[in-house]
Amino acid sequence: MKRASLIITLLLASSVGLQAQVQKTFTIDATQPIAKVSPHMWGVFFEDINLGADGGIYAELIKNRSFEFTEPLMGWKKLGQAIPEGVLLVLNRAAENPNNPRFLRVNTQHITQEVGLQNEGFRGMGIKENLRYDFSVRYRQVKPGIKLHIELVDSTGRRIGKGEWQPEGGDSDWQKGKVSFTATATLAKAKCNIWFEGQGVIDLDMISLFPADTWKGRSGGLRADMVQMLADMKPGFIRFPGGCIVEGRDLANRFQWKHTVGPVEERKSIMNRWNTEFKHRPAPDYFQSFGLGFFEYFQLAEDIGAEPLPILNCGMACQFNSAELVPLTELDPYVQDALDLIEFANGDIRSKWGKLRADMGHPEPFHLKMIGVGNENWGPQYIERLEVFKKALNEKYPQIKIVASSGTGPDGDRFEFLDKELRRLRVDFIDEHYYRSPEWFLSNARRYDGYDRQGSKVFAGEYAGHPPQVADGPMENNWRAALAEAAFLTGLERNADVVQMASYAPLFAHVDGWQWAPDLIWVDNLHVYGTPSYQVQKLYSINKGTTVISMSEAGKPLAGKDGIYASATIDEKSSELIMKIVNHNDTSLRGQFKIKVKGGIAKDATHIILTAPSLDAVNTMEHADRVSPKTKIEKLQGKDLIANLEPYSFHVFKIKLK
Ligand code: AHR
Questions:
Q1: Does 505 sit in the ligand 1 pocket, CB within 6 Å?
Q2: With a 6 A CB cut-off, is 516 part of the ligand 1 pocket?
Q3: What's the rounded mean pLDDT across residues 372-401?
Q4: Torsions phi, psi of 482, nearest 5?
Q5: Catalytic: 384?
Q6: Is 243 in the pocket of ligand 1 (CB under 6 A)?
Q7: Is the same domain home to 264 and 199?
Q8: What angle do helix axes 380-396 and 412-424 make, rounded to 10 degrees?
Q9: Could you tell me if residue 201 is inside a domain?
Q10: Which of 277, 296, 343, 376 is an active site residue?
Q11: 167 and 290 part of one domain
């Protein structure tokens, strides 16, 4: 060998030597159960933010279908040349129908030119080729003679679907008309034209267009692709309807469940509080139609096998906004709403609210087991109101668990005060929220190790890693944040006797209509993808196990030392050992897992690996699977497993026990 090549060979050898793989030995003791994992441990948090409901999971394609937006024709455009005054009018019948007062009167008696209306949808309408679309409208013929032509068009006016509807009957009562047609092309941002042919007068309201491919094919239902993303997580619970939306900017704008049930045309729309919340992300056309109301939330929970967890207003508007308070002397209607909700969910069908549930198509109870009183409320004024709710709820429904707010953050005076008070009141669950940097999540993996094991349990109700110095929006959902969340969640699992429910927040965001990021799942009008954080949440949820066992290194829990975070459970139902481990290092690691079990153990382990090309990596509509789990099989050596843990990676190992 020449001298030069010898030197190169030696240099290479020494650099390989310098990077020699770190080796670690972990002990997993399945002979000593530590705590039970709640069957509802990992859930989802739903809020109508970022076009989560209207324009999102609620599959309605027409925006402002009942003309109740502050500007009654927002989302609508008049079609036709020089339409004379009085042809298209918005009327208000507040006395006859206070919940849905406005409607459109079309009067073509004295004109001969073409006239119509165009609806722009929610940032356009997602239309699929060969799919059926169901148009419907509530109407009253004042003077018969008008026929409707409905068409879906692209931005050039090219038609990609059309229907024709001839109203019937006289002017006495409002009735429903409908027509279905099939789209001839796929388009993400179509619009819907409605042309009025002939001479007459007709009143129109609840102008609606739904795709046929809704979740479970329900008419007027939910977007199947979005619900499927939730179902795939097998969530233990679904918290709804928020979030700050529960509180409202002021009390008039708070979420009132009774306005969201019964026939859709009788539900009372309000402005969505996220409409004006962020000056840099204005959404003036964001309202709540409540087509997705409390009945549908309960139904969704049932469909995806999740416990329903409604959160109700406690007589306080958002303390970041108006901070309005209901005097204690006037709190009764709020408390009554909570009691009535339990009757709506669980009550006998002969009771007032149980009957409404039955009339809506669900005579069986929804088996509601818990209820949240207030979202992100704080201060002594919250405690005073909570006590009134708690007394009434405990008296009438002692079996219903109460979830209470610990404010907006996981530390500081506000949190300390509330945590102490809530424990004094022995509430069942304390709802903790943390939107923090990835570093916070890493350094808080031991947060719950020292918590009181006897008193109130923790509901980690809203959390997300917010990486700094990243452009606002989908790019914030990077692997750096998701990996830190994965590390932190080992601490929740290790403390499953204390933390009994956990949900990332917010859940959905529309790429063209979001206010808040990061989010778990991003959608456009036709597609949906899970972020790296979604993959992490899902891996935890579908691999949760039933009993926590110890996983340690030299007798110490794996909670950040040398960048390693881990937890382990046993699933008694499937007889499996499940280990989760994060390698938060820029080098790979050779892990030796020494497993102590009473009985036998399989020869193979399923090894699920979640990693990414870089810490800044994100999933996108085009690359939805860039950060997604890969699975391989590892051979065990007796009761030992040896596996490679790549730099910055999250792993789930599953081994059958005999
Ligand atoms: O998840 C977004 C918002 O964050 C929720 O509405 C609120 O509870 C929290 O401040």
A1: yes
A2: yes
A3: 98
A4: -65, -40
A5: no
A6: yes
A7: no
A8: 30
A9: yes
A10: 376
A11: no
